[in-house]
Each structure stands twice: as structure tokens, then as C-alpha cells.
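Exercise 7. Given the components listed, write out the predicted structure of the assembled complex. Treat all entries as one system.
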Amino acid sequence: MSDPEDIQRRFEELEAGRILGDLDAQERLEWEELAKDPRCRADLSLEFTAAAIETEFLPPRAEPLPATTLEHLRRDMARFVSPPPAGSPAERRFVWPGMFSNPQTAWAVAALFAILFAAKALLQFPANGTVKPAVATLSPEEARDILLRQAGDLVQSDFKGTDAFGQMSGKVIWSDQLQEGYLTLTRLAANTPSVSQYQLWIVDPSRDEEPVDGGVFDIPPDRETTVIRIRNPLAVNDPKAFVITLEQPGGVVVSKQEVVVAIAKTS
Amino acid sequence: MQDCISRYGGLVWSIAERHVRDRSSTEDVVQETFTDLWKSANRYNPAIATEVTFIGMLARRRAIDFVRKASRRPQLEPLCPSDTLHHPDSMRSDAVRWEGEAARKALKQLPPDTQELFFLHFDEGMTHPEISEKTGLPLGTVKTRLRRGLIEVRDILRRTGGSQPSIPSLS
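Answer.
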């Protein structure tokens, strides 16, 4: 086989087999040899063709990704971005018009998202307690205000206290993209941490029938308004409600909802 | 990136699951695919392929590579490293933008028996030996028809893709 057209034809057939995943060992060796031959031209056209066919035939997946996979992906992606130049326009823009519609801008924005994710991950999973991300120095009020200014997908809802807590008011803000949120609670009765603690629950039917733990917190006696950062160990994708309960010190894994303090519905 | 995971996570999972057929391995392939995506996203050219096709291609690579490595064949180089996307030739193409609907239309121009093989492979998710068993065709025939069919679909897309955006070089 010395005709360049024959060689190219054979190479393309093997290339198609490689893309379809059906090369046997001998064919694989032949493909490797031909791939080095300058008379053989390779591009991505067959791979794109196979991908276009496969994605066209695939039925849409109804259920969300497993929570463990989502967690791994979110932690993993922070390793692949670097900080955008300080003061660049992208740093101040939190628009996401389409991931690849303008790759440079979109990925600069993505980099900032990932930095915030990384900071959050470090806050939740400190490495031997030696890593102190910059955001750790922010007060909850400051961090909340930054989120209010920057998140493009902010969910906001007002808390309504139950009968025994009717005097309280509050607001929750939450960003799915950043997996970050805050409670601003006013006139909620101070608790004695050694006796009981408040606990937040996030209702997200898209991920689980059971509410997700949003963290245990205290209300100090000397402040009318307290800002609490939501600390969700599991990913939340589409919260429908936020519920505050009063629980034993340290909180509980599953709430009996004996003392429901307040509820904020997002839809 | 978060949006990307939300939008395409299901697609990547489905492709991985179809090829790998094992939940634990599927999770590995999904993670590896997104790692590839973060590394190569700046090389994506929307004039050449849709986001779905581009990400689908990365997922297929990872899944097929995983299956190949798991099949106890001699250890070989990675199927096609992401770096090849950077090579000018790797993105050389005609005035075609690869996307699913056009591919489906092109498939309909193949002989009916070849269309059936594509349907069994891509829609039913059957392996080539499974197709061979179901259709009674020799395995070699199944492989040859699918390979040549894929090349033919590519050529049809190239012939009919004249109205699509031209492809700039990535170099």
C-alpha cells in the first residue's frame, strides 16, 4: 500500500475505529504507525461527528448528578483557574451569558467564582488549620454585602416567625452558583448555647427529600440584628425553603421539628 | 464553571454511564472529563462545534479511553491528549459546525442497514459484539460498516455545511 490516497483511506478507517472504540491490538499498532506518517492527515472532524451523533441520540437525563460527584467537581475545578488581573472589568462582572459565548470574559468570571469557591472550601475544610483564606477576615456582614453586590443568581426571601417567635423578622440570601448564603435575623431571641442552639435547614427537593443541614448558630443577647453565614456541607442546587429550628447543643442530624422558629419560602 | 456543571453534568454522566456501565467508574470518568474541560475550554471554538458537541467529545474520549484501559489490552498512550486541540491541524476542517441535528439528518442519507447499526450503537447503547449478536452480522462487518458510516456522515456534513461559519485556525 503505497498510494497516498490508499494510506489516507486506511488511516481514516482506523481513526474511525479508534473513535468508536473498536480497534483491536493489532489495529491499534497500525494506527499508531500511520499517525506518524506525514501522508496521513488527522483532524477532529470524525470525533466531532461521533460526538454530535451521540449527544443527539442521548435522552435528556432527568435526575441531577449524585451529590458526591457534584462535591468532587466543585472542589476540583478550583485547581484549574488563576486569579484575574486585579481591577479588571471581569472581576466586577458577574454575568454568565453562556459559558462559551465569549470564552475570555466568561472564563475570567469563572475564575473569580472558583476563587470564591476555593475560599469557601478552605473555610469549611481547613488544611491542618494553617491556611487562612482572605475571606476569613471578613465579618459576616461584609461577606453578605459582597455577595449581594456580586452574585448574579441571588435568591432572596423573608423569614416569617412562628407563633412563639412572631416578633422576629429576617431575610435569607442564597447563590446556587457560589454555594454561599447568609441569614440576617432581627429580634430573634438570644439562646443559651449550653442549653439549645438554632439550626438552619435547607429544603431542596431537587437533591433530596430530606432538608439539608445549613449549620448551627447562636444569637447573642446584646444585638438586635445578627448576620449568620449558611454552612451547608452538601451542595444545594435549587432551595425552595429555609427553616430555622431550635435544637439541642451542637444541633441534630435529623430534626424532629419540635421547635420550628421561622420559615422562608423562595417560591 | 458552576453553570457549566449544572448544564452539562447530566450529559457527561449519561455518556460515561453508557460506555462504562459501572457507577463508580462513571463518577471517575465524569470527573476526568470536567478536568479535561477546565484545561481545554479556552481552546473551544464555537464556530466549529456546539458546546454540547465539544463537551460530548471530551466525555466520549474519556469514556472510551477508560474502557480500553480496563480491557486488559497492552498499555498504550492516552487516546488523544487534550493538547492535540492546540495543534492547528487538529482543528483543521471545512466550513462545518458540528452539531447534533445536522448529524441526525446526515445519518438518514446512509443505507438503511447502516442506519440501523448506528441506531443500535448510539441510541440503544449496544457494543459492537452485542450488535453482531443481535443482527447476526459478523463482528468485522459491524465494525467496518460503522467506521465507514461515520466517515460518510462526516463527509455529508462537510458537503452540506457550506452555509455554516468558516473555521478559523486555533494557532
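Discussion: Chain B has two domains: 1-92, 94-171. Residues 72-95, 162-171 of chain B have pLDDT under 50 and may be disordered.
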